[in-house]
Amino acid sequence: MTSTLAIVVSLLLLMYLAYRGVTVLLLAPLMAALAVLLSGEIGVYLPIYTDTFMKALGNYVIQFLPIFLLGALFGQLMADSGAAHSIARWIVDKLGDKHAIVTVVLACAVLTYGGVSLFVVAFAIYPIAKDLFRTADIPKRLIPATIALGSFTFTMTALPGTPSIQNAIPIPYFGTNVFAAPGLGIIAAAIMFVGGMWWLRGRAASAKLAGEGYGHHEDDNDDTALRNVDSGALSHMPLFLALLPLVLVISVNALFTYVVFPRMDMSFITDRFPHITPAKVIGLWALIIALATACTTLIISRLGHWSNLRDTINKGVFGFMLPLFNTASEVGYGAVIAGLAGFVVIRDAVLNVTPNNPLISEAIAMNVLSGITGSSSGGLSIALQTLGPDYLRMAQAAGISPELMHRVAVLAAGGFDTLPHCGAIITLLAICKLTHRQSYLNIAAVTMGAPMIALVVVITLGTMFGSF
Known about the structure:
It contains 23 helices and no strands. The chain is mainly α. 76% of the residues lie in helices and 0% in strands. It starts with a helix and ends with a helix. The longest helix is centred in the first third of the chain and has 37 residues, at 45-81. 54% of the residues are buried.
């Protein structure tokens, strides 16, 4: 009981201090030490730190470093080449300010589904969204929720093939790929999109009836957000060239996942690397090849148009380190917690919520841990690091496909991850120069409300019909 209480105290402190802005790189080992101390095992913390915390952190970095690195690089290349701006401006030109909300949502969705990072999208789209909302006289306080709907929801967790890190994390645990349960993913994406649009349009209509317009804001004539994107992002780029890298991320990924790797004789790999199980890693290999192909194509197609290609590459490469090590530190924390005696009580309680349906247990675990850490990737990583083998065993015993477990895990991780202390939400509000008081209710509605409904529907359909 003491050990269980120690785990709860350390988790609550981790959530509170992360909300207060303390870096997880420091928090994770400190809160792990606190849990060990309160459990009465402080005498062995140093070996726990070096053999458990650091080993789990290192293994995570080994598995996912290429995805984080290439994803960050690709996002920076898309921003500085002008591709992200060209795509967003094309959507704006086609739909116009009369459809400001759906225009911004679709612009964000196209970019994030193509592999551009959430933060790059927010910086690139905010100036456009501000102009659209001002012209349409829609309250500025709805901009963060609109960007969040297009960036933090269905393109991150639901659409099949999305190259988000959240969609890649379950691959080595379940032996799946980023296209897992495509039909259920599309249904979930539709629910999130329709539900989010219904909410945002309703809020905009209510504001109009109340006589509330865009409002007056200090940054109306401030182009700080634009300056956060390299000046090359404002240069003209043909639409087909801008879309080509996004298409390559999805198509090359699918090609290697479903055609190339399945037709290859992997015996030469297992002979030389007997510890590798190809079925559990080809999903990651396909995503690495797809992102590398898209980055290379983008660089070559814009030769002669880069304002400073070296700086763009350096900025993208350096930008992956903090997100990767933040998440890896949380994985290390989870590994330490999983080794404490009190975790057995928590694990059994979670696993036995519905012993005949591990989908519900998995959904609860992912939601709770993502909410506590304020990170979908962090919560997902901790949960699968500690409970992944148990869930796979339970799924096999219940006749549930790993693909369905994969999709439910990712959807659930995108539920409570956007609580107020979420780093992505704090950053988004800072970009938009708005406060939690002004915008958080609408953000919560589109990033938690609609995704939770989608999760329930997917679990229900998956239980009735299996994975499809």
